[in-house]
Amino acid sequence: MKNYLLYLTKRVLSLIPVLFVVSVIVFLIIHMTPGDPAIVMLGEDATAEQVEELRQQLGLDLPLHEQYLNWVLGALQVDLGSSYFMREPVTEAIMNHLGPTISLTILSQMIALLIAIPIGIFAARRRGTMADQSVMGVSLLGMSVPNFILGLLTMLMFGVILRWLPVAGYAPLSAGLWEHMKYLILPAVSLGTLQAALITRITRSSMLEVLNNNYIKSARAKGVKERQIIYFHAFRNAFLPILTVIGQTFGGLIAGAVITETIFNIPGIGQLTINSIERRDYPIIQGVIFFVAIAYVGINLFVDLLYGFINPRVRLEKN
Amino acid sequence: MSLQTSTPVLEVESLKKHFVMTGSFGKLGGVKGVVKAVNNVSFTIHQNETYGLVGESGCGKSTLSRTLLKLISSTDGKVKYANKDILQLKGSELRHVRRDVQMVFQDPYTSLNPRQRVGQILEEPLLIHSIGTKKERMEIMSDMLEKVGMQADHFYRYPHELSGGQRQRVGLARALVVNPKILILDEPVSALDVSIQSQIINLLEELQAEFNLSYLFIAHDMGVVRHISDRIGVMYLGNLVEEGPTERIFQHPLHPYTKALLSAVPVANPDYKRERIMLKGEIPSPFDLPSGCVFHTRCPFAEEQCKTEVPQRTENAADHFVSCHLYH
Amino acid sequence: GCSSSSTTDSTDDENSPSDGTDEEQVSGGELRAAIGQQPETLDPHMSTGATVKYVTRHIFEGLLAADSSFQPQPMLAESWEISDDGTIYTFHLREGVEFHNGKEMTAEDVTASMNRWLEQSSVATQIMGEDAYFQEEDDYTVTLHLEEARLTAIDAIASPKQFAGIMPKEVIEAADSTGITDYVGTGPFKFVEWRQDQYIHFEKFEQYQPVDFPADGLAGEKVAIVDDLFFDIVTDSSTQLAGIQTGQYDIAYTLPNDNYEQLLDDPAINTMTDLYGNSFHHFNKKEGIFTDFKMRQAVNAAVSNEEIMLGGWSHPDLYSLNSSYMGESQVWYSEAGADEYDQADPDKAAQLLEEAGYNGEEVVILTNNDSELYNTSVILHEQLSQLGMNVKLDVYDRATYSERRTNSANWDLLAVGLSTVTTPSQHLSLSASWYGWTEDETVHQMLAEIEAVSTLEEGTAIWDDLQAYLWTEYLPGTKHGDYYYYIAARDNVEGVTILEGPILWNTSVNK
Amino acid sequence: MEIAQNSGRVIDVQRQLLKNQRSLLVRRLLGNKQIVFGSVILTMFVLFALIGPMIAPYGPYEMSVSDRLQPPSADHWFGTDNFGRDIFYRVAIGARVSLGVGLSVAVLSSIIGLVVGLYASYYRTLDHILMRICDGLMSIPAILLAIAFMAALGPNTINIVIALTIVFSPYIARVVRSSALVVREQTYIEAMKAQGARSWRIILKHIAPNTISPLFVQASFIFADAIITEAGLSFLGAGVPAPDPSWGNILADGKLVIYNAWWMIVFPGAALILSVLSINLLGDGLRDLLDPHVGNSKKIKRKKAKVKAG
Amino acid sequence: MKKQSLLDVQELKTNFYTERGVVTAVDGISFSVEEGEIVGVVGESGCGKSVTSQSILRLFDEKYSVEYEGSILFKGESLLEKTLAEMQDIRGNEISMIFQDPSSSLNPVYTIGRQVAEAILLHKDITRKEAYQKAVKLLELTGIPSPEKRALEYPHQLSGGMLQRVMIAMALACEPKLLIADEPTTALDVTIQAQILDLIVRLNQEIGMGVMFITHDLGVVAQVCNRVIVMYLGQVVEEADVRTLFTEPLHPYTKGLLHSIPKLDGERAEKLHVIEGTVPSLTNVPTGCRFADRCPQADATCLEHAPALEAQNDGHKVRCWHASAQKEVETYVATN
Ligand SMILES: Nc1ncnc2c1ncn2[C@@H]1O[C@H](COP(=O)(O)OP(=O)(O)OP(=O)(O)O)[C@@H](O)[C@H]1O
Ligand SMILES: Nc1ncnc2c1ncn2[C@@H]1O[C@H](COP(=O)(O)OP(=O)(O)OP(=O)(O)O)[C@@H](O)[C@H]1O
Ligand SMILES: [Mg+2]
Ligand SMILES: [Mg+2]
C-alpha cells in the first residue's frame, strides 16, 4: 500500500514537467498566432486607438515572458484568468462547458466499446473467414471517413429525413435523461465510429494474440467451457492493450469533439475552443488546452493504475 | 595438465555484482533490497583450458559471465586480461578486449537478431572490428560456417528457419569469426536434446584443439560438464563454494551442495539405484541472504557455527578448494 | 397583459412571410431564433457587429428609431428640435417609460447613455465631431451640443447599427472596458439569461409602453407577443438549415446561400431577404501597385460582377448589380459614374495594364474564409489571372484576416463586405483610416461639404458629384454589387419584419 | 547439399543464392495480396493525379459560375462545384496535394519519430526530456495543435506538412520507443555489445529494424490521419489555401451544399477512403513482408515444387 | 486386444492446415498406456511429442487448423467421436495434462490458488470455498512451502520450479485416471527435478494413475518409466519396456541417442557420439524410411520403402528393415 501511494505520488509528480511543456507550447503558439483579440472584440470599424487601449487593458502590450509569468503564477493558484469575451473566469467557463463534452465522450466511448469489443472478439474467433474480413474491411472504412462527413450524413439521415432525433443542440442532464440523450446520440455515434473502428482492430489482434497463448490451451485442458475461456481467461488478458488505446485515444475524442460539437451545436469544450480560437480569446484557449492536457494525462494515469488491477504482472513494475 | 605449467589468461579477483532493487523515484524511493547475484567470486582460467561452472539455476552464473565482459557494471572486483582490468576499460580499449574475449549466450533463440540472415549475423563482428574487404569477409565467414558444420545455403536463412542446434552453432560461429582467445559459453547446450548436444560439444573440443582456446563453460548438466571441463567450479547463491579438477570433484566432492547435486543427477540406466542426498528447507531468497554460510538453511550437516560464521576458502587437496566449515 | 392580437399587420408586405393569411395571432409561447454567431457583447454601444445589432434591438431602444425607409422617427424621445444654427438639438423625452429594472427613464439616464455612445461609436464621433456632448436640461429634456452644424446627426442617432441605446445611469457607471454587465433597457423584451455559446434568453417585458403609431421598420408600436425569446447560437449554417427544416428553430438567421432555392420551394418555410451591404474589393492605396490609379482602373475594367456576385451569393434574389455606394431605398441613392461599373472588358483592362506598366508584379488578394468573401475573391482571382496578372490569394480565418489587413504591406486587394450605412460619410470605402486608406483630399473635402449643408437636397447633389468622382477619377475599390441576406421562418411564425436584421416583436408563433 | 570445398566455389554458390534470394523477394512481393492491391490502388491514384488533368476537358481553376453545382454528366464527369469548376479535375489535382501531404507527413514523422524514439529508448536522460516533450505535444488534441500551428505559420501546403509532422511525430516516437525498449533488453543486443559494437551501430542497425513493423502500422495510420486532419483543417478553415484543391477543401466546400450536391462529397470522399484503404493495405502488407516469420511460406512451397519436379 | 487399455491410440494422424499446406506433424502413431503405468516418450526436438499429447485431449483448433485421423480410445470410448462439450468433462477430470512450459501455461491475471480451485470446481460439485481449501491442500502436497500464502500469489511471483509444481497440483486436482506430463522438468535444475519426479511416481503408485511422460532426458526416463516410446519425425520408431530399451535397443536412432549421452563415469577424453545429418523438414518428408538419410545402415530398400512398426518379441516393437537381422548379430549394452 505504501509502495502504491509512492507510485501514485511519483506518477502525479511526473505530470509537472509535462504540464510545463504543454504550457510553454500553448503559450508560444498562441502568441505567435496572428489575429488580435482586441480587434476581434471591437468589431470591424474600431479605430487603432481603441484597439491599443483595449490591448493595454488586457495586458497584451506586456513582453511575452511577463505575460507567461503572470499566467503561470495565476495558474499555480488555480486562477487561469478571465475570458475576454465571456465575462467569466476561465475555470468557470471550462466547468460550464465540461458537462456536454463529458457526456458526449462517455457516450461515444460507450457506443464504441459496446460495438467494438464484441465485434472484435467475434472477428478474432472467426479469423480468416468472410465474416472476419468484412468486419475488418468495415472498420477500415470507419477509420477513413472524416468525422465531419459522418456527422453531416447522420444528421441528414436521422435528423432531417427520418426525424427520429433532433438535429442539433443540447439539453443538460437536469432536463431528464432522455432529453439529455436524444441530443447526444447522433454526435456520439459519429464521434464513436472512428473510435469503434480502432478498438475493433485492437481487440481483434490482441484477442488473437492471447488466444494463441499456452494458458488458453491449458485452460481448455482443465475442461473450462469455451465461453468462459473467451470472457474469463482470454479477454481479461487482451484488455490491456485495448485499455491503452482507450486511454490514448481520449485525446482523439476531444479533438473529434471539436468538429462534432461544432456540427451538432453542442456547447462543450470543443466548441468553446474553436470559438475561442476564432475570437482569439487567449485566456480561454490557454486554459482549455491546459485543462485538456491535464485530463489527458490524468486519464492515462488512471489507465496505468487500472493496468495493475487487470494484470497483476504490471503492478508497480513500471518505473 | 597441471596448473603450474600453464599460463593464466583470465584472472577474476573477488568479483561482486549486487543488483540494487529500488522503489519508486529511483534511489530516492529507498532501496527495496539488494540481490547479491555474484558475491566475492575469484578464479582463474588458463590457456587452452576449459573451466566448468555449475550450480543451481539462479545462482548467478549468467550474471557472472556478463559482468566479466562489462556487459553489466560490476559492484567490485577485478577481471584481469592481458595485464589489464577489463572492468576499468572504456571505449576502443574495451572494444579490443571484447574482440578477444567472446561470449556465446545461454539462449540460442534470443541471442540472434531475428531480422538478420545468418550471413549478416556473421559479418557483423567483422564489420565492427573493420576486418577484411568484402571478399575477404565472405571467405572468412564461409570458412567458419563450414567449420561449425553448416552449409552454404544456410547463409541466407533467418534464425527462425534453423533448428536449435543450428542456431547455437551460428552463435558459436559469430563468436569465432574474430579469432578470440577466450570463449565464455553460457549453457550452450541445455536447451537441446542429446543428439544435438553432442554435436556441439564435439565441435567445441575440435575448435579448442585447433585454436588454442580457453573456455568458461557454464552448464547444469553434470554429464556434459564432466565430459568437457578440465576444472570445475560449483556456485551456490552467488558464491563459489567448491573448485577443483574435474575428476577430483566427481570422485571426491567435498561441499554438501556438490554432493547433493551429484547425487540428484539422473542416470540413463534403469538399474542404477543410489542414495540421493535430499536437500530440505527453503531456497533462500537472494534478497535476504542467510547469515554465515549461505547454504546452511538447506545443509544436512549444518551446525551452529555455520549459521554465524562465513566459511573460509581452503585448499583441501592439490588445486581442490572448498568453502565449508566441515573441512577446517 | 397588454398584448393584443390586433396590433400589427405588417405594412411592409413585400417582406412579410405571412402575407395573405389573416389568421389570428396567438400570444404567448416561445420563439427560437438561430443566430450564426455569439454576439461579442450585448452592449449596443460597444460593437458594430451585426449579431449584436440583431439581438440587442429587442431589449434596448434609442431616442429615435429608423423606419423602413431609414427615416428617423421618435422612440424614447417624443419630439426634438434643432436650433437655427444647427448646433443644438433638444430632445423631449417620453414620460413614464420604465426600465426593465422598474426605474423610470429620465434625462440623467439619457445623457449618460448618449455621452457614452458618443465616446464609443467611431461613426458618431466622425459625424458629430470630437466635441459633441449631451446635456441634461430637466428631467425630461436633454440637449445635444455640436461644434458646427451636421446634416446627418439625427440619422446617426437613429441608426440601427452600433445604436444609441438608452440604459440606466447606474448600469453605465458600472460598465468596464468591455461593456455593460447589466443588460437593462426599455425594450419590449427583457434580458433573462445568456448561456455562453448556447443561447440568449429574453422574456416579454410586461410593463412595456409602446408608442402609439403603427409599427414601421424599427419605429412605431412594439408588442412582445411571445413570452420567451431565445436566440440559439448555432455556428454551423448546415446545422441551422437542418434545424429550420425540422422545426427545431422557428427562425434561422444564417443559412447557406446555396440552400436558398431549396427553402423557397419548401412549403413549410418562408424566406425573407434584406439588403445587407456592398461587396467590394478595396485597393491598397497606401503602398504597392494600386497606388497607381491606372492599375485600379485596369482591375475595375476587368471584373465581371455577375459572376462574382452569383458565385458569392448563389441566387439572383440574394444580390443585385448596383453601382451606387448607397442603397437603392435610401435617399442617397445615385447612379453617377455607373458606366464605369461592371465593364467586364478584358481588352480595355489589358490596355490599361500596359499603360500602367504592369510587369507581372504579384498582386495579393486578402480574404477570409467566410464563404461569401472567399467566393468573390476566388472568382476575382480567376478573372485577374485570366488577364495575365500574377495573383495570389491569401485566405485566413477571420481574426487573422482582421489583423493582417491593418498592415498595408500585406495585401493589394482586400475583400470586404460593407454593411449598409445611413449616410455617405459613414461609408468605409471613403474612410482615410479604414483599410484601403482613402486619403484623397477631394473625397474628404466633399464629404465635409455634405455634412455642412443644411438640406438633404444640397447634400445629395454633392454626393452625386462625389460618387461620379469616385468612379471615374479615384476608385477606392471595385464595387461588385449589393448583397442581401435571407432569413427563413417556419410558416407558423407570423409578423416577422426585417430592417437591418429581423424584428421579432409583433411576431407570434403558432405551435 | 554438398559442403563447398574451397571458398572460391563458396562464393559462386553464394552468388547463386543471392540471386535466388532476390527472385524470392520479388515472388514474395507479388505473392502478398495486400501489397499488390494496395499498390495497384495507389498507383491508380498517382496516375489519376498525373494523367487525369490531361484528359479532363476543363482546368482546375477554370470556372463558369453559371454552371455551378451541376450533377455529373458527360461534360463534367464528377459534376461541378459551387464555382462551376470541374470536380473531376479538382479531385485529380487534389490527389497531388492530399497524397503529397499524407505521404510527406507519414514519411517525415516516421523519420523524426524513429530517431527520437530510438535515442530516447537508449539514453535515460534523453528519454526523460524527449518523452516529456512528446507527452506534452500528445496531450494537446491533434487538431487543436494543428490549428494553432497553422494559425501561427500561415496557410500553405508546406506549413500543413510541418504542422502535421510536429503533431504526429510524438505518436511514432512513442511506438518506436516502446518497442525499442523491449528490443534493447534482448540478448542479441547484449550480444552486439559483447562484440564491441558502438551505440549508433546498435541503435540504427539492430534496434531500428526490429521496431519497423509497429512503425509501419503506425505510419499508415498517420498517413490516413494526416489526410483526414488536413480535411478537418480545411473544414475549419485552416487547411490548404484556395484555390488549390485538396480533397479536404473540396469536401469542406461540399459540406456547405451537402444537401443539394452530393457529388461534391461523394467523389472526393471516395478518393479519400480508397487511398486510406490502400495505404493501410500497403502498411499491413509491408509489415508482413518485413517480418521474417511471415511470407516465408512461398519459399517452402517453391522448394517442394522443385523436389517434385526434379 | 487382450485387455482394455486405459489409453489406446491407434494410427493417430494430426494434420495441420497451414498456409504452406498440410503438415502432418504426427503420422500414424500407435501406442497404449495401461493403468498404473508410466510410459516415457522420447525423441528429437520437433518430432511430435507435444502434438501427440495435445491431440489426445483434442486441444488444437479443429475448426480452422487441425484434422485428426485414426482412433483414440480412452477406457474403450473413442475420444475423437465425442463432442467438444463431452470432451470438456473428460479434460482435467479423467485425463489431465502438465504443459511443457509452466510459466506460459498459467493465466497471468489470476492467483494460482484460484486457478487450481477452478480446475476442481469445474468437475466437482462443491462450493467455491471448499474448492479453494482443496487447492491449498494440493499445493501443499506438491511440496510448495507455506501454500496458504502462495495460493494468493500470481504466477509471475513464483519461481519456475514452483510454477511447475502448481501445474502438477492443477493436473492432479481431480485425481485423473491418466496424466500426460509434457517435459515437466526441463526448466529445472537437478535437485528440484528430483523432487518432482518423486511426487509423480508416488501418485502413480498410490492412486494407480497412468502416466504418459514426455522428456528428452534419458536419465529421467531410466529412473521413472516402465515402458518407453521413441519417436522420430512424427512416428513411433521403437517401443519397449524400459530395461529392454536401454539394454537392447533395436532402432539405429535409439542407439544413436543412447550413445550420445555423456557419461558420468568412465573415460572422459573420448568424443561424444553424434547422429550425422539433420532431421528432415515436415514439409519434405522422405518417401522411404524417415531415418534413412542419417542411418549408417541404410540401403536401397530403406531409401525407397517405409518400414512398418513391427513387434519383435514380447511387446518390443521397432520400425526398421534391419531390426530382426541385427538383433541376432549384436547386443548392445547400455552402460559400460
Ligand atoms: N538485471 C537484474 N536485476 C535484478 N536481479 C537480477 C538481474 N539479473 C539477474 N538477477 C538476479 O540475479 C540472480 C542470478 O541470476 P543469473 O541469471 O545469473 O542466474 P543463473 O545462474 O544464470 O541461472 P540459470 O541457470 O537459470 O541461467 C537471480 O536471482 C536473478 O533473479
Ligand atoms: N499449430 C501447428 N501448426 C503447424 N505445425 C505445428 C503446429 N504445432 C506443432 N507443429 C509442428 O509439429 C512438429 C512437432 O511439434 P511438437 O511440439 O510436437 O514437437 P516436440 O516433439 O514436442 O518437440 P520439443 O521436444 O521441442 O517439445 C514440429 O515440427 C512443429 O513445427
Ligand atoms: Mg543463466
Ligand atoms: Mg514439446
UniProtKB/TrEMBL annotation, chain A:
Keyword Manganese: no
Residue stretches spanning the membrane: 12-32, 102-123, 135-161, 181-199, 238-264, 284-310
Keywords: Cell membrane, Membrane, Transmembrane, Transmembrane helix, Transport
Gene Ontology CC entries for this record: plasma membrane
Any one of the GO BP annotations: transmembrane transport
Location(s), subcellular: Cell membrane
ABC transmembrane type-1 domain span: 98-307
PROSITE patterns the record matches: ABC_TM1
Membrane topology: Multi-pass membrane protein
InterPro entries, per database record: BPD_transp_1_N, MetI-like, MetI-like_sf
Keyword Hydrolase in annotation: no
Pfam families with a match to the protein in the record: BPD_transp_1, BPD_transp_1_N
Protein family (similarity comment): Belongs to the binding-protein-dependent transport system permease family.
Name recorded for this polypeptide: ABC transporter permease
Organism name: Halalkalibacter oceani
TrEMBL record, chain B:
Domain of life: Bacteria
Keyword match rRNA processing: no
GO molecular function, one term: ATP binding
Keywords: ATP-binding, Nucleotide-binding, Transport
SMART domains the record matches: AAA
InterPro entries the UniProt entry points to: AAA+_ATPase (IPR003593), ABC_transp_ATP-bind (IPR050319), ABC_transporter-like_ATP-bd (IPR003439), ABC_transporter-like_CS (IPR017871), Oligopep_ABC_C (IPR013563), P-loop_NTPase (IPR027417)
Family: Belongs to the ABC transporter superfamily.
Protein's name in the database: Dipeptide ABC transporter ATP-binding protein
Organism: Halalkalibacter oceani
From TrEMBL, chain D:
Protein's UniProt keywords contain Transmembrane helix: yes
Places the protein is found: Cell membrane
Highest taxon above the source species: Bacteria
Name this protein carries in UniProt: ABC transporter permease
One record GO biological process: transmembrane transport
Main location, first listed in the record: membrane
Topology in the lipid bilayer: Multi-pass membrane protein
Swiss-Prot/TrEMBL keywords: Cell membrane, Membrane, Transmembrane, Transmembrane helix, Transport
Domain ABC transmembrane type-1: 99-283
Any one GO cellular component localisation term in the record: plasma membrane
Organism: Halalkalibacter oceani
Entry similarity comment: Belongs to the binding-protein-dependent transport system permease family.
Residues annotated as transmembrane: 35-56, 99-122, 129-152, 158-176, 215-241, 261-282
Record bears the keyword Lipid metabolism: no
Pfam families: BPD_transp_1 (PF00528), OppC_N (PF12911)
UniProtKB/TrEMBL annotation, chain E:
GO MF annotation list: ATP binding; ATP hydrolysis activity
Protein origin, superkingdom: Bacteria
PROSITE patterns noted in UniProt: ABC_TRANSPORTER_1, ABC_TRANSPORTER_2
UniProt record, GO biological process: peptide transport
InterPro entries: AAA+_ATPase, ABC_Ni/Peptide_Import, ABC_transporter-like_ATP-bd, ABC_transporter-like_CS, Oligopep_ABC_C, P-loop_NTPase
Subcellular locations according to the entry: Cell membrane
Record key words, sorted: ATP-binding, Cell membrane, Membrane, Nucleotide-binding, Transport
Official protein name in the record: ABC transporter ATP-binding protein
Organism annotation: Halalkalibacter oceani
Source taxonomy: Bacteria, Bacillati, Bacillota, Bacilli, Bacillales
